[in-house]
From TrEMBL:
Taxon lineage: Bacteria, Pseudomonadati, Pseudomonadota, Gammaproteobacteria, Oceanospirillales
Function: Cell wall formation.
EC number(s) recorded for this UniProt protein: 1.3.1.98
Pathway info: Cell wall biogenesis; peptidoglycan biosynthesis
BP terms from Gene Ontology: cell division; cell wall organization; peptidoglycan biosynthetic process; regulation of cell shape
Localization in the cell: Cytoplasm
Pfam family, one: MurB_C
FAD-binding PCMH-type domain location: 18-188
InterPro entries: FAD-bd_PCMH, FAD-bd_PCMH-like_sf, FAD-bd_PCMH_sub1, FAD-bd_PCMH_sub2, MurB, MurB_C, MurB_C_sf, Oxid_FAD_bind_N
Reactions accelerated catalytically: UDP-N-acetyl-alpha-D-muramate + NADP(+) = UDP-N-acetyl-3-O-(1-carboxyvinyl)-alpha-D-glucosamine + NADPH + H(+)
Full protein name: UDP-N-acetylenolpyruvoylglucosamine reductase
Amino acid sequence: MIDVVENHSLQSLNTLAMPSIARHFVAVHSEISLLEAIHLADQHQWRLYVLGGGSNVLAQEIIEGLVIKNEIQGIQLLSDNDDYVIVEVGAGENWHETVQLCIRQGWYGLENLSLIPGTVGAAPIQNIGAYGVEVREFIESVRAYDCVDRVWRDFNNKACEFDYRDSLFKRSKNRFIVTAIRLRLNKTFHAKLSYGALQHLEPSTITAQQLSEEICRIRLTKLPDPKDLPNAGSFFKNPVVTMSHYHELVRKYPNIVAFDAGDQRKKLAAGWLIENAGLKGYRDPVWGVGTHVEQALVLVNPQCRSLVAVMSIVEIIRQAVKENYGIELEIEPQILGDQVKSVYSVA
């Protein structure tokens, strides 16, 4: 039996600490209890929303419908050979703790993704990435419930349609609930040090644990702990522009930070764009919402303001970037609330 709670506060369940009330709330710990929750929502004609670790969420103040907290856990070794292992991980497992367990077990590849907040289920939805690595490089398959066809589906890597901070699951907001992923991890460690802040490390001597610790150190210097200062990590996607647009920007801003994105395109550092527009460390005088003093890409919400307040600052930033560079910034977090018709999967 599932235990549905009425008028449940979600403020402690989103890392921006936004005040939010779910009219109906339930935590599920298995695929069976998930199906029970979906059936209950059908009976009452409640809209359905799925919440994981809350690290990539913009929660509305009142959420009509049923919010399902995905707490499906479990880690299982499915296959093991001389070169790699296949590991299945429940969507409700903590991502960073999963990375650390894999390192201890000698299952390698995820080190650069250390300390990314949220749950395992969010990883394929967002195609999380950091320091030159994306999770799609290691996903063998994703298990999800199809809320349209009412069947369980297993997606191989190609079927997930991964892209930069994007996937089939993210684009199909009203359809899939991820319950588990399968990771293909190497048994031999190969340090990936192409990212600028890692290039000083020695690839022939560094261990997986040392690399993970260095990643954590770097992240902690740039990203505030949500427990101390409410935030959702990197808030904006790094925009990708054509080469002609890039060269136009370089003429005006010679120090612009950019990376090759393939197909004659450049990926621009959104944090640099915001900082160069004069908004690093900006705080709204009324709401107190603003950008972090150390990293302009991070929005902070020290006074625990609502979605309206946060989005007002988002629009200030987006307008400044558009006026300065001719670029429309996209946000990474997803809105949890009644802007969609059915399921809205978030981190």
